[in-house]
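4.2 Preliminary Data

To establish feasibility before requesting continued support, the project team ran the inverse folding procedure on a target of 122 residues. The structure was first converted into the token representation described in Section 3, and no sequence information of any kind was made available to the design step. The complete token record follows.
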């Protein structure tokens, strides 16, 4: 019985240490991006909401056609809570979604409703 308790206690200690270590690292904010905007997307940019500049294009396919999805691997250097996302079409026309909490996103569906950008989060 003591051996089981000791093993359980050691396992919990290792798990807790792993959580502390992970908390000090930058977040992993991977998600599936679904394009329901009505236009084909040629670039995707994500930046912390409080920053007035866009990071590099993170779209790893040439074109994300309307109705298609792509897995986004996003490992930011910043630890911001809220993020802005911008897509560009073939003519570099930009559509922006603001203040997204990407830590709570598994699937992000981008839409245009009544001429305004809407993000559906799952």
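Position-by-position output of the design step:
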């Amino acid at each position: 019985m003591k051996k089981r308790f000791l093993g359980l206690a050691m396992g919990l200690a290792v798990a807790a240490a792993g959580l502390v270590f992970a908390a000090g690292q930058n977040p992993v904010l991977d998600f599936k991006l679904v394009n329901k905007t009505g236009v084909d997307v040629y670039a995707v940019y994500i930046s912390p909401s409080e920053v007035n500049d866009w990071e590099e294009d993170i779209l790893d396919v040439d074109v994300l056609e309307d109705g298609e999805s792509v897995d986004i691997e996003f490992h930011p250097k910043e630890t911001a809570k809220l993020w802005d996302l911008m897509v560009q079409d073939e003519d570099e026309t930009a559509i922006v979604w603001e203040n997204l909490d990407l830590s709570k996103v598994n699937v992000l569906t981008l839409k245009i409703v009544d001429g305004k950008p809407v993000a559906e989060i799952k």
